Amino acid sequence: MTGKSTQLFSTWYCPFGQRSWIALLEKGVDFEIVETDPYNKTSEFLAISPRGLVPTLVHNGKSVYESFVINEYIEEAWPQQPKLMPSDPYDRAQARIWVDFIGKKIVPQFYHVLQSQEKGHQKEAKDRFLDGLRVFTSAMSSTEVPYFFGKDFGLVDIAFIPFALRFNILVHYRDFSLPSNGSFDRLKVWMDACKSRPSVIPTVAPRDKMIDMYKRYADNTCKSEIAEATRKRAPFP
User: Fold this and answer.
1) ∠ CA(59), CA(63), CA(69), 5° rounding?
2) pLDDT at position 2, please?
3) Could you tell me which residues are beta bridge partners of residue 57?
4) In degrees to the nearest 10, what's the CA dihedral of 223, 227, 233, 236?
5) CA 136 – CA 86 distance, rounded (Å)
6) Following DSSP, what letter does each residue of the chain receive, concatenated?
7) Is residue 130 a contact partner of residue 109, using CB atoms and an 8 Å limit?
8) What are the average pLDDT values for consecutive 10-residue runs of the chain, which has 237 residues?
9) How many other β-carbons are positioned within 10 Å of the β-carbon of residue 93?
10) Recorded E.C. number(s) (predicted)?
11) pLDDT value, residue 62
12) pLDDT at 125
């Protein structure tokens, strides 16, 4: 480690850590990524992250964990432009509602699609995943502006883009595709805009590495806490 006052403890394939990586880059924060093995939790890591979760952010010697909490902390600790949350209280509440929706209604279904082994269960999971994506897409601003709330990239976009970037994993292992009937055209505009964002590009791992990494999920042999929760249909840690 370099001794920088801001450190993000994460691992290269973690979509939750990618959220906070993007937020830090958006804010222009001088920080260090500390590659952390979530399967071999050292006593040093558990001292800053009692639950042993990645990502964990350390700022001026104090630690914050949970990606949504970290990203709101980043917005408040570095209040400079660009703003990642709307200024209006109602709009900020709406942003939190949609971040919560992503966490509860979309992300779990991503893992159910990937980990389900029977064709029938895979189809059910795909249908639920697409249902969540439809609701998310219908809530977006008009197609004249690229991001969820319009022209400004923010925490709602950051909450979902890591999983949109992993659609190719579902394509590879589960023959997943978005329907071509026009209902997801707005989502595709959003995805193209987010993928080309300067804060997003450096966080994207090579496709082949990601495919290999997620094979354990596709085989349903992964031992991560997320995988275990998916198997049990339990809330995510």
Assistant:
1) 95
2) 57
3) 8, 64
4) 110
5) 18
6) ----SEEEEE-TT-HHHHHHHHHHHHHT---EEEE--TTS--HHHHHH-TT--S-EEEETTEEEESHHHHHHHHHHHS-SSSPSS-SSHHHHHHHHHHHHHIIIIIHHHHHHHHH--SHHHHHHHHHHHHHHHHHHHHTS--TTS-BTTBSS--HHHHHHHHHHTTHHHHHHHH-----SSSTTHHHHHHHHHHHT-TTTGGGPPPHHHHHHHTHHHHTT---SHHHHHHHHTPPP-
7) no
8) 85 98 98 94 93 95 97 97 96 97 98 98 97 97 88 98 98 96 94 98 98 98 95 91
9) 11
10) 1.20.4.2, 1.8.5.1, 2.5.1.18
11) 96
12) 97
Residue at token pair 């590879």: 172
At which residue do the structure tokens 């791992």 appear? 205
The single residue listed with the structure tokens 């840690």 is 237
- The rounded distance, in Å, linking the Cα atoms of 171 and 218 is 11
Q: Which residue has the tokens 């959220």?
A: 19
Q: Output the six-digit token pair for 1.
A: 């480690």
